[in-house]
Structure formats: structure tokens, C-alpha cells
Design brief:
single chain; 448 residues; alpha+beta; BirA Bifunctional Protein, domain 2; Rossmann fold; 2 domains; eight-stranded mixed β-sheet; five-stranded mixed β-sheet; 16 helices; 39% helix; 20% strand; binds zinc ion
Length: 448
């Protein structure tokens, strides 16, 4: 008989199971705890947005928007577009995409719900979730990946730039990544006052060195000269090392803000490297930009997080002019770096109590069920055997699950109205009154 084809996960996606899911939970819970202390509240925005949100937020000309969007469409609209031979007849609200990053959606939500009233305190928010790219599947490039990010809207105070970066570095420390294995690269992108003149300088430099640059970089001279700094071509990278540095051409306000960020990082004891070639090719980036690399990574894959100030973005997306800054941390890359550095990301849940049955009669089975129920309802994590194992293999199972305590019930103990508490590390056993098991176990767990 023909076997039914086995379903497989979509290309470029991953099932988060076991240790991987524990690592994702560990990152999210570390973020919630740490970012909360810095005044950040969790937010969740939809995984899809109108395509416009991303083409305005990220720029029409970026690779992400041009070729890497993962589009979403209803069956009805797909049928219509296929019949008409184009999606031109669809309204903006019918053209959807899965989010490739978290900032654009958050900024859209902040505008829509007026989260930053004029003159109000800055809004600090963090998020964690799936992001999507529709690019070709290859090693290290997933179609669904995970990010944790934080955003601040409503102030251009360089104190916020410094605090956000310090919080990011503290986050890596909380995950167990040693500070000496990380490299924080920092730069300023200037502002609408000082960047246009700088951009012209770089344009001239590109044209002067056209013979040594790749075709794309030569073309960039006219479209977006600063993106030549991102070119992966080693020849271009060499040429760009000697290009004019933005930090030599900042206006007074930008130079002051940059100096203040560096001063505050020093105060906090956060080491950084100035990286004048670290330039983000999007127009809305202003002033502070940063990136964190982990030692031992390969090329661009070694960047495990980064961000920057985007004082122009809210206005670009249709809101009142509102300064903002944010970062995003890639889960998959951070996990790779953690593994390479020997840091273990695991989520420490509640300690486990295993309820073991010494015997198979109905009264014992009922007592096991009752004890699990009582422990769980009293707020503890309890597990039991469902396969009729012997007592010895129940202890083995308890060890395997990481149980710290066993509650053992058998026919004789039941007669006496007792159960036995077994410490799984020392194997020490004590008798306990059946009716008071939740309290006794709670006390025993506290004393472990
Ligand atoms: Zn400036
Ligand atoms: Zn190039």
C-alpha cells in the first residue's frame, strides 16, 4: 500500500524544540526582566502589515523591500490578481507582507495609537517574535527567524542612546556572553544639517576611485553613495577604509551628542570601538549607529545585534516629527555565538516534583493523581508515570526529567495516611503526612 507523503516544515524555517525552545524562552525572559528594569514595556504588533509600511519604513530601494519581502495575500485577492494578470487592482490594504523586522510595525502602531503625545515622556517598548524574508534559502539565512528588539520614541537626548546601548550589552551579559568576546562598534551618521555635504564628499571620492570599485559601487555614487561602505567586495572595502569619515564632518550639535554618548559609555564601563565605516544606508538613520559582533563569527554573520537612532522615521511614515532610537538582537545568531563561546542559554523553570507509585493497585493510582493535582494547584510543577513503569524505572525517569524531589506512595503508606519524600540528589527519604503534602513539599523545595 502506498504510504502517505510525510509533511515537512517549509524551507528556511525551524521547529523550536527542546534546548532550542529553552534558549528562546531564556532570551525572552531575560529581556523581559532586564528591559523592565530600564522602563521598557512589552508590545506585540501583527506579524503582517500593509506592504506600504515596510516600503516607506525601510525604503523603496533597499534589497529587503525590492526582492526579499515575504508577501501575504488572501485567496480571493490572489484569484483576482491572477485573473487580472497583475496586483495593480488591489487596494493598499489588500497588499500585505510578513514583517522583515520589528521597527516599522512598531512605529506604525505608535502613530496609529498616538503613543507619543506632543511633549509627553518618551515611550519605551520591547518586542520578541518571528521575522520573515522571502529570499533564496541558503546556509545561515532563514525565511523565518527570531528577533528581540527595543525602541524608544519621543526624545533625542543622547542619554537615551547611551542607556539603550548599555542595556543591550547588559542583556548579552545576562545571557552569559562574556564581555571580552564581544565587540561594540559605534559611529555617528550625522543629521539633515551635516550629512548632505558629507554625502557629496563621499560621492566625489567614489568617482575619483571608480577604477578600483565594483560596478554597483560606481552606480551608488549617484543613488546612495554611503551604501558603498556596506559593499562586501574586498576591493571596495579597502578603498572605503580611506574614504572621508563622517565623524570629521559632523555639525556642532551632532559632534556634541556623539561625544556625550561616548562619555556615558565610559562612565558605565562599556568598552566600544569607533567604527567610521559603520554606516547604515537608510536615509532615516541619524546620529548614533551601533553594532555588536561576537568573536569567532564569520564575516557579516558575526553581527549578533545592532541598531541606531532614526529621528526621521516617524515623520517619513506619516506621523508628527518624533525622534526615535532602537536595536534588534538576532536569536539564531546570538545562540550560535553563545554556543561557540560555551555559554548555555537555558530557561530555568520551576523545580520539578515527581510523584512515584510503589505498586499498581487502584488506590495507589488514585493517590498519585490526587497528589499531582494538589501540587499543581498549589503552584508547583509535578509529573508522574503514565506507562505502568516499575518504581526503579520511575526513579530513572524522574532523574531524566530533572526532578529534585520524589513523592512516593505505596499501599502500606496509604494505610498509614503517609507518603515518602525522596531527595533525588542525596537519596535521603522522610515520611510525610498525605494531607499536608503540598505544604511539606513547598518547605522541602525551599530548603534545597
Ligand atoms: Zn548634524
Ligand atoms: Zn563595491
Amino acid at each position: 500500500m502506498a504510504q502517505r507523503a510525510q509533511a515537512r516544515k517549509p524551507e528556511g524555517t525551524e521547529d523550536l524544540l527542546g534546548a532550542r525552545e529553552a534558549a528562546w524562552l531564556a532570551m525572552r525572559s531575560a529581556a523581559g526582566e532586564l528591559f523592565g528594569r530600564w522602563g521598557f514595556s512589552p508590545v506585540e504588533t501583527p506579524m503582517m502589515e500593509q506592504l506600504d509600511v515596510f516600503s516607506r519604513g525601510l525604503g523603496q530601494t533597499t534589497d529587503v523591500v525590492r526582492k526579499e519581502m515575504f508577501r501575504a495575500i488572501t485567496q480571493t485577492n490572489l484569484t483576482r490578481a491572477l485573473e487580472e494578470g497583475s496586483e495593480a487592482g488591489l487596494k493598499a490594504r489588500q497588499r500585505l507582507a510578513l514583517r522583515p523586522e520589528g521597527t516599522a510595525g512598531f512605529v506604525r502602531a505608535a502613530i496609529e495609537h498616538d503613543l507619543v503625545p506632543q511633549g509627553g515622556a518618551p515611550v519605551k517598548a520591547w518586542y520578541a517574535g518571528s521575522m520573515f524574508r522571502g529570499e533564496r534559502v541558503q546556509r545561515g539565512r532563514l525565511r523565518e527567524f527570531h528577533q528581540i528588539g527595543a525602541e524608544v520614541l519621543g526624545s533625542d537626548d543622547p542619554v537615551l542612546d547611551a542607556e539603550l546601548i548599555i542595556m543591550l550589552m547588559d542583556f548579552y551579559a545576562a545571557l552569559g556572553l562574556p564581555a571580552e568576546a564581544l565587540r561594540l562598534r559605534l559611529n555617528s551618521m550625522g543629521c539633515a544639517e551635516c550629512r548632505p555635504a558629507y554625502r557629496e564628499l563621499v560621492r566625489g571620492y567614489l568617482l575619483d576611485h571608480a577604477g578600483e570599485l565594483c560596478d554597483e559601487c560606481v552606480a551608488r555614487a549617484d543613488t546612495n553613495p554611503l551604501r558603498a561602505f556596506d559593499c562586501k567586495n574586498p576591493g571596495c572595502a579597502r578603498v572605503m577604509e580611506d574614504a572621508p569619515k563622517i565623524t570629521d564632518h559632523l555639525c556642532e550639535d551632532c559632534a556634541e551628542a556623539y561625544a556625550e554618548v561616548k562619555r556615558l559609555l565610559d562612565v558605565a564601563g562599556v568598552p566600544f570601538e569607533e567604527a567610521p565605516t559603520l554606516v547604515r544606508g537608510l536615509d532615516y538613520y541619524t546620529r548614533t549607529v551601533f553594532e555588536v559582533e561576537a568573536r569567532g563569527g564569520v564575516g557579516s554573520q558575526s553581527a549578533i545585534g545592532g541598531g541606531g537612532r532614526y529621528d526621521g522615521l516617524v515623520e517619513l511614515m506619516g506621523g508628527r516629527p518624533t525622534p526615535g532610537i532602537g536595536f534588534a538582537v538576532g536569536f539564531e545568531r546570538t545562540l550560535l555565538a553563545a554556543e561557540a563561546l560555551g555559554a548555555k542559554l537555558t530557561f530555568e523553570g520551576e523545580p520539578l516534583v515527581y510523584v512515584a507509585a510503589a505498586g499498581k493497585d487502584g488506590a495507589v493510582r488514585k493517590a498519585v493523581f490526587d497528589l499531582c493535582l494538589a501540587l499543581r494547584r498549589a503552584g508547583m510543577r509535578a509529573e508522574a508515570d503514565y506507562q505502568g513503569r516499575s518504581l526503579k524505572s520511575q526513579f530513572k525517569q524522574a532523574d531524566k526529567l530533572g526532578a529534585v524531589l520524589c513523592v512516593v506512595v505505596g499501599p502500606e503508606e496509604l494505610e498509614r495516611g503517609e507518603a515518602t519524600l525522596r531527595n533525588m540528589a542525596s537519596h535521603e527519604q522522610t515520611a510525610a503526612t498525605l494531607g499536608a503534602i503540598p505544604e511539606t513539599v513547598r518547605t522541602a523545595l525551599a530548603e534545597l
